[in-house]
């Protein structure tokens, strides 16, 4: 059986993408502006070893499958047809396809590409979310290359959801709007002390310092800390702003008026959430506020995320997502009074679209910086995440909590965040 025939059996004869294979066969729409190209038989080895998303990812990252045209458009069109009721193959049909590919594909095993973090490697680093293991998985994702992140993230060097005041706002305007929204929710004022946990390249720290706030950011990424420290010095903010390469758990308690946690909770793990929020609660003065900003799942009763899936193997090892009520409950149980919550799901889809455009525009430079395989991981992962946020597979929640001063929350009668 030729590969184009298999493609048609899986997605139908009217697929809205073009398909080409090394055996010369073609399928789908020949006029489409996107194409899936199977370049070598090794792609079939990967699919035989790991049917589904993992096998496809391995084949794409290693260059045995290519996607021509816009990655998001290709993924969206393929998702529309492969998840439709009319194109779901039975186990018997899948077995027939496997036999037609040839059983040799099942025995000729090929190793995963080097960008994949194998479960055995994580196991050898100790228990999930132990300090040493956390440091290593953060290093895997965030110490790729500061120059690469500049190509993807743009001048703001902010790797979290932006807040778009209008749909046509620039990425930099939207990231600045996000930091200002966090500042308003926290009611940051001159003379206060802010702790920003998981601070990345120091965007929130510098934003706060420009308001006269004494701000400390902590990150497990050495490269982030070095980049942030240089930028703080360049902007003349060293008297107020500091970024340290350290674990948030090692920050002294009881010293801060405000805490921001922007994109860290995803790395904490469900069983560690009580200790995480208790630690942040202990670091605040009475009357202090915490703004927790993190990716969430749309429901709280979903089964646990697959710990051995593509995202965990290629992007965020040990990453975990919880529903918004789970996050809010753990904050509440740690002592915080919850004062505000909002979902910024659509804003993250817009943010990711901008990052995808930056990567495509700077593709050659990105490949020179980190190599073809790593650049492909990012192209696939970010385009897939756009779909995830658009289709409500994932969300983004900001939750504001207060450490009461006796019974006083020191909050206005009505929020003035906007």
Structure characterization notes:
It is elongated, with a radius of gyration of 23 Å. Helix 9 packs antiparallel against helix 17, helix 16 runs antiparallel to helix 18 and helix 17 crosses helix 18 (372-390). With 418 residues, the chain is of the alpha/beta class. The mean pLDDT is 90. It folds into 2 domains: 3-107, Nonspecific Lipid-transfer Protein, Chain A (2-Layer Sandwich); 131-402, 3-Layer(aba) Sandwich (Rossmann fold), CATH 3.40.50.150. It has 18 helices and 11 strands. It has helices at residues 3-11, 42-49, 53-61, 71-82, 91-101, 104-107, 119-123, 131-142, 146-153, 171-186, 203-209, 222-234, 273-283, 310-314, 324-333, 345-361, 363-370, 372-390; strands spanning 18-21, 26-28, 35-38, 65-68, 193-197, 214-219, 241-245, 256-262, 284-296, 337-343, 395-402. The chain has a 7-stranded mixed beta sheet with strand order 7-6-5-8-9-11-10, with helices on both faces. It has a 4-stranded mixed beta sheet with strand order 2-1-3-4.
